[in-house]
Amino acid sequence: xxxxxxxxxxxxxxxxxxxYNEEESIYTLEEKLLLFLQHSDLPACILFVNDGxxxxxxxxxxxxxxxxxxxxxxSMESNKGLSAALKAGIDSSYSQYVGYMDADLQTDPEDFNxxxxxxxxxxxxTGIRVNRKDSFFKKLQSKIANGYRRMMTxxxxxxxxxxxxxxxxxxxxxxPLFNGMHRxxxxxxxxxxxxxxxxxxxxxxxxxxxxxxxLWNRLSGPFIDCFAYRWMKKRYINYSIDKHNLE
Length: 247
Prior knowledge:
247 residues, alpha/beta, single chain
């Protein structure tokens, strides 16, 4: 994709919002995002990534983008999962920074301003959900999965599942794509010798729709993916260009 013809290059930050079957909440999400854009500390745009939704999400995304000039979208040919949708959004963004949030509105886009305060000094700033509004069972699942991931990755991040993050786009584009990649974003930034900061953010109950995760994929996925990360960590290569004459 040509950066000169990419609308995201006109903004400081692109907020990527993967969407899969969220037709019930998409208009409320629009309202929240519009309010955020009015108060954003950085010039920002919204990039919806429709992950092969089977409901009316894509049609509603078209409507939203038609009536809001700072809203854009991508649509995947079929459902490929959160990691693929997020990576597609990153690879299609040419702003200095990229942000990420889920479409379920369990986090508030207004809290991006809390993350923006430190993004100049860190390659990633990630939220930590305080006073989580999930059920006891869901919080227990997350606690087990987070504990196991921290043990395997040693990334020091207490809540990698928080869907509110901001990254330098240059660093985000270097992140390799694999199933479960979204669970390891801080660890993958650290592999680049990047710096990660954690900031407390608000958390809310799910307003509509249903969670795409259950006990099996919440625990089995991280367990399997941690081994993939450990394999990658031993073989990961960092490089930088000293000189060139490509201008």
